[in-house]
Amino acid sequence: MAERFSDLQMLKLVEIYRDHECLWNVTSALYKNHDARQSAYKQIAEKLNISGISDKDIPKKIKNLRSSYYQELKKN
């Protein structure tokens, strides 16, 4: 797994993630489709083009991003 993402890399991850509704929109028909989700993770990894990161690392990064987001919400 790659080291910490820079702010620019995280922003790029979020922008690419937003384009793949099957990963976050529970009302999407593809949300429960494992193959569609795996394909989306592969596409995100390819578009990020960061050495040392694979499609298996993307769900972990997304989970970490969500955790950080919710921690910040709790602070306010």
From TrEMBL:
Q: Where is the MADF domain?
A: 12-76
Could you tell me the superkingdom of the organism this chain comes from?
Answer: Eukaryota
List, alphabetically, the PROSITE patterns matched: MADF
- What InterPro entries does the record tag this protein with? MADF-dom
* Any one Pfam family match given in the protein's UniProt record, by short name: MADF_DNA_bdg
Q: What is this protein called?
A: MADF domain-containing protein
